[in-house]
Amino acid sequence: MLAIESQIPVVLIDNIGHPVGQVWGVEFGSIATIRKNQALFSGDLCGMDWIRSVLLQKIANQRALLLRLMEGDIPVEALPKLERAAKAIGVVALNFENWSPDDPQLLDATAATFRGWEGTATRFYFRGIATVLPEKYEFAGRSKRPAYDPFNALLYCYGFLYALSELALMKAGLAPCNRRVVLL
After folding, report:
1. From 82, 91, 162, 176, which residue has the greatest number of CB atoms within 10 Å?
2. According to the model, what pLDDT value does residue 24 have?
3. Would you call 153 exposed, middle or buried from its count of C-beta atoms within 10 A (0-12, 13-18, 19+)?
4. Does domain 45-167 have CATH number 1.10.10.10?
């Protein structure tokens, strides 16, 4: 009760230390309130504009990596594939850049549309990445459960480790979403 009253999340662990659940308070700022407000914000025009800017930065980073790979020592046959992938991501970026909360003709671009644009950019990104990997790490496309190749297994492990890292931070009493870190 003291932890809840102090707005400290409690992580429940099993007998070998693996996190199995969390307990949060119900007061303002609790996870339920935060998620409710996030859902409301994502449907708001200001929220859509913020989401647009975050996704635009993400796909700009993906495109920048592909362009940087083109400058390196890559197989000759990979260059046109990387160029196509970078160009396609650039086209998707234009969709995000042209969307405006002030343009009534573009308001039909909902969160689902944004997810579609992001998914398209990500598909081209991974196609580009696949062209420059050594043969033993080649993959035909994304696969999750199960991962059919070493590259997808690595991505699956990354996602798994991210969740474990987040829970480890919580077990240590840190909030992973806080940007400010206080060093003692």
Report:
1. 82
2. 67
3. middle
4. no
pLDDT digits (tens, 9 = 90+) for 158-176: 777 877 777 777 667 666 6
User: Quick one: CA torsion of 142, 147, 150, 154, rounded to 10 degrees?
Assistant: 80
Structural domain spans, the chain: 2-35, 45-167
Mean pLDDT value of segment 46-55: 83
Structure tokens at 1: 């009760």
DSSP 104-172: GGGTT--HHHHHHHHHHHHHHHHHHHHHHS-GGG--SS---SS--SHHHHHHHHHHHHHHHHHHHHHHT
Q: Rg (Cα) of the chain, in Å, rounded? A: 21
> Average of pLDDT values for 26-46?
67
- The burial of 66, by beta-carbon neighbours within 10 Å (0-12 exposed, 13-18 middle, 19 or more buried), is given as buried
Q: Which amino acid is at 150?
A: P
CA dihedral over 51, 57, 63, 65, signed as positive or negative: negative
Cis-peptide, bond into residue 146, ω within 30° of zero: yes
Give residue for tokens 């308001």.
Answer: 107
